[in-house]
Structures are given as C-alpha cells and as structure tokens.
Amino acid sequence: MKKQINLILNDLYAIDPSLREHEAELRPLVAKLLEAKPDTRFDAAFAKQLRSSLMAEQPSSSSSSFFSFMQALTSNKWVYSFGGAMAAIVLMLPVVYFSLQNAPASDLGTVMENIARRDVVRNGSNAFGSLASLAETARPQSGGGGGGVANLAMDSSKVDSRIWLPTQTYRLAYNGDPIDLTAAELEVFKRIKDMGNTSGVARTLASLGGGIIDLSSFGNTEVRNVELFQNVNEGYSFGVNFIDGTVYVNATYERWFTDSYNCGRTDCPQPAPLRIEEVPADQVLLDMANAFIAQHGINVSSYGTPFVDQAWRISYDNTPDKSIAYIPDVVDVVYPLMINGEQVTDTGGNPYGLRIQISVRSNKVYGLWGLTTQRYESGSYAAEQDASRIITLAEQGGLYNYMGEPQADAVTVNLGTPTRKLMQYVRYVGGTNEELYVPALVFPVNDAPKDIYAPAYVVVPLVKEVLDNYQPPMWLKEAPASVEPTNDPLPPADVAQPEVNLR
Amino acid sequence: MAMKELDLQLVTSAQAGDRQAFGRIYDLFVRDVYDFLYFKTHHKETAQDLTSLTFTKALANIARYDASKSSFVTWLYRIARNTVTDHYRTKRMTTSIEDAWDLADSTDIAHDAETAVLMANVKQHLAKLTSEQRDIITMRIWQQKTYAEIAEVMGKSEASCKVSFSRAMQRLRAEMPLAVFLAFLSAHLLV
Q1: d(Cα B88, Cα B77) in Å, to the nearest integer?
Q2: Which one of A1, A20, A27, A29 would you mutate to disrupt binding with B, by most B Cβ within 10 Å of its Cβ?
Q3: Rounded to two decimals, what is the model's pTM?
C-alpha cells in the first residue's frame, strides 16, 4: 500500500507542489481512502450470463429489419391512437403486429386476461417455502474481509455475527398503545409476474431476422420485453416487461433538457438551482398526476389515495440557510399499492406503489414507475403473538435498519402505535426475483429532534419464522468467548468507534 | 488497461451489426463498468442490474454512436452514469440524486452491509464532493486508472482531471485531517 500511496502523492505534488507541505495529513488521507475501497464482488458467472443475453439480443443496426419495424410501428397512427393507455400497450402491440402479419394469436388471449385480472390465488401453509432468508438478509454481514478501517478482519470460522456499527445519538422507546396480536397465522402474498405464454408472438417476431439470420432456428423462444418511444423532444419511452409483469414510462432522457444537460456538447450549461417558489403546490402536482393517469387510461384501482412525497422537504426544512438548501428537479406523486385492503410499504416503512414523477423544471410528468400486474398468490405462515418481542425488536430499529449502539448520552425518541401493513420484500431465488408481501407492523418515529438523524419508520415483520432466524447485531449480544484476533484485531471499544473519534 | 486496447475497428464492426465485435467490446469493459457502477451504488445486485442496463442500452444505440463527437469510452461511461441517475430518480428518491453517495438516508435503499461499514468513515466527506470529483477519486485511487484513462472516461482533458483530483483531495484534507489522522493511528500504530 505504501507504494500506491507514494504514487498518488507524487502525482499530486506534480500537479500542485505546494501540497507537499501537507504530506503529514495527505498520507493518512490517501491511506484512509485506499482502506475504504469496498470489495465489489464481481461475479464472473453474472458477466458470462449477461454476455450470453446480449449476444441473443436483437441487433439495433439501422439496417436491421427489426429496427425498421419498430420505427415503422412507432410512427404508425395506430400506435398513437392508443396513446399511453398502459395496458393497451401490452394488448395492442401484438395485435397491431398480428393484424399486419395475419399470424395466429392463440396465446394473446391469455396474456390479455392476465393483465386485466386482479385476484388472489390462495394456497396452503408455507406455500413459498421457508422465509428464513428474509431474516438472513436483514442481519448484518459478518466482518471477514473488512480491512483496516473498521478493523473487521476476524477469523470468520470463529465469529459469525460480529460487526462494528457506528454509535447512535438516539435510542428508540415504544410509547404507543398496547399491541394485540391474536392471529395464529397470517397470509403472505407473492405477485404472479407471469403474463402468459408469448411463444406464438416470439415465433412470429423471429421471422424478422430476414436474410441476416434464421431466428426461427432457435427453439423455445418467448418475448421478454417490448419498448416504444416517442420520437420528439420531451417525449417518453414506454414499454412492457413480460417477465416481470411491469409497465413503465420514462422520459427519454437524452431528448429532455436539450438546452442544458443534454445540449450535445461536453460543456453544456448547467441550469440555475431551483428556487422553492418554483416547486408547484401539492394540489397542482396531484392534478398533473391525475390528468396524466386519465389521459393515458392507467388503471389505478389497486392503488390508494395519492399524496405528494415530501421526503425532500425534511432536508430542506433542516437547512437553516435556505439559499443553499437543495430543491429537487423531480417530485413524486405516490399512489400507494393496496393488496387485499392493506397498504404496502417498503422495508423502510415508506408507502410503496405507483409513482408519477413530475419534472419541476419542465412542469410536466417525467415518468411513471411501479405499475405492475395485480395477480397474487398467498400462503399462510405462523404469526408471532408475543407483543413484547415485537416491541423489543422495534426499539432496536427493526430488522432492516443498520442502527448502532446508542451512546451513553443518547436522547430518547418515541415510537408510536404501529399500523399493520404489508412489507414488500424482494427475494432472490434461483436467478429470479420474487416479490413477497409480508404482514408487518410499521411504527412511526415520533417527534425526533431535528439534529437527530432517525428513520421515519421502524418495520418489524410478523411472521414468526423470520423473527426466529433474525440475529441482532453484535452490540446487543455478549462477545463470543473464543474470539481470537487475526492480523487486524478489534481495538478496545473506545477506539473501535471511529465515528466518535471523528467528532 | 482495457480502454487503451480498444480497437476502433471493433466499434465500427459492432455498429455494422457484428455481434461478436460487440461481445469483444463487452469483454474489455464489463469489469471496469461494473466496478464503476458498484462504487456509485454500493450494492452488488444493483450494480449488476445497472451493468446489464448499460450494455443493453449501448447495444441498442451503438449504431447512433458518433466517433467524431466523443470517444467510445466516454460514450459508454456516459450511458453508465445516466443509468445510475435514472435508477435513483425512479426509486423513491425525489431529488436529483446522481449516485448512492448523495443519499443522506439509505436505510430503504439496498446496500451491502460490509460496504456501508467500510465507508462509514469516508462517506460523509466524499458526499460533499461533486459526483464528478468522486468519480475521479474512485477511479484514481480504487481503480488505479491513469489520468489519461480517467480523462477518456470523463470526456475531459487530462489536465482538467488532474486539477479536479487535486482540488478534491485538498477539500478532503481540509474536511477531515484530524479524523483521518486519528483513524490512521488507531489502525496502524495503536494495535
């Protein structure tokens, strides 16, 4: 490392010789940065798989028949006639194509039905197998492979849950009503992403290989996704992912902000920072979002009452000098997803659902995210009925906050009465992502002082198996008796908290 | 390094639809691009998703790449950078966040626990730099790229990147001298 440090310092001195006077500070600074380098865990198997996928993708050369087909399709009045009706994109793109090609569309009926359906297929107990991994992911990783910064380089065979976490300036304390947990079992949901068999469409599309390649020679083909775009400035790209069962609309970024960010040169002028008075009022934002939904026939029957995401205002309000406070370019209107009458949140307790993004600079909808198929299957799982266990976990920050040990002079922040919601959890299984929706209690963090950086919510899942497999962070447990430091031992507790030393 | 070895003929062939040529370009850059994206997202799966998106976009648009406007490397990394920006814009975040460093609170954004811990000491300081300065620092110190390589990625002159790096380091020095000194002592001298 010394050689690397010297190399970097010599570079710096070559640029600015006066920096040599500060070597006593620069040397540890460079060392610190080098030590902080994370292991990116590059996965060669992933790279190989991605390469294979790219090799199988349809080329987009301007001479290819597929590209020409898509261009022709996007300029076809039929396409504009169904505008942005999101479900209609899915339905009509194949229809347009099939009407042109007079091809059989036996599988389209199923696809169309699946998009329109909103139902829950109920299965038996433990329908989705063990949910233990929801706790394993929540648990902080063991410290092997760390490095000098946090002094984590322990022998992982001896220590499996030891981790350094920064200390906190607050502690959480439950101050809500008694919690009544009577249900012995709870329903966990999984979204059915599959839109149906698209092999018939794929077989017909395969004829687009033209004279370059015989795509029909590949067997078992299906359609993964379809994307269209508006060939105008401030237009949208929109498409359907048949594998994920999602529909999206994005601003075609390179065609937006063409007089600033995307001016076509390397020295594009940067627009002036936004002023708070330029952010439209909430009702104006809601009206814009609702108008977009109405204009494009977006079905929001599975989503609750919309609201304007105010997350950015927290930092704005906490910045005393408003002249340097940050104003966002894009503000979201959120339509919270409802499943079986219950609101869905992410693992941080924030409402999850359809987001209509509005560009403040353009005063126009910038994109849409979170519009998905609404078919679910469910399975029952044993529920945690011990309220005290739930409260204890909540006071530790829940399962998904990396909260450190409260300092001796930590202030107490109250947790309010929780609300029962469904927590979305994305589980990686066998190369695919499953969207699970798990019953959980979401505790509001009430009246945290402005100088305390506390989360807005704390989430504790109610499935007993998840809690049984959760291991709290090290500071909540006694140190293992057999810990033998390797080459980079944990220093004493008062030195092991660099966060304290930094202040 | 990969970008020095890029044969422009490969790009031309890929533009003409030669998939094998694109595959060779991919082989040259996939690791660098993935690492670049990881340093901007701090999460393996997110970096993989964005790597996938970056190369998918590159493949879809390679016919539109104009060598007279920028180098291919600049073009590819611009896609990668925009992909990161779009990723955070389409997440819950409503601000113009450019990468994970800009996230004041990442508790509900996926991140690797070990990386979060490793970066705990430096994140608050690096977060005060511009996204461009962070990119230059991570490329110079973590990826050990030469200034010529960094300049190509950033689409700027080598001199400009050197000055930017120097200014970033001076700012960091001003921000955290006592902190890093104490941490340096604890890590290397007191054990």
Answers
A1: 17
A2: A29
A3: 0.55
